[in-house]
Amino acid sequence: MKLTEENVRYVAGLANLTLSEPEIHQYADELSGILTYVAKLNELDTTGVEPMTQVLFAAGDTASLREDVERTPLTNEAALGNAPLASGGYFKVPKVIER
Amino acid sequence: MNIATLTIAEVQDGLRAKQFSAVELATEALRFGQAENGKTNAYLTFSDERALAAAARVDAKLAAGEPIGALGGVPVAVKDVIVTKGLRTTCGSKMLANYRPPYDATAVERLEAAGGIILGKTNCDEFAMGSSNENSAFGAVRNPVALDRVPGGSSGGSAAVVAQGTAVVSLGSDTGGSIRQPASFCGCVGVTPTYGRVSRYGLVAFASSLDHIGPFSRTVADSATLLQTIAGRDDRDATSALHAVPDYFAAMAESVKGLRLGLPKEYFVGLAPETGDRIMAGVEVLKKLGCEVSEVSLPHTEYAIAAYYIICTAEVSANLSRFDGVRFGHRSAKSDTLAELYKNSRGEGFGAEVKRRIMLGTYVLSHGYYDAYYLKAQKVRNLLTQDFAKAFEQVDALITPVSPFPAFKIGEKVNDPIQMYLSDIYTITGSLAGIPCMSVPCGATAEGLPVGMQILTKHFAEDTMFRLAHQYERAGGFTA
Question: ipTM of this model?
Answer without folding.
Answer: 0.95
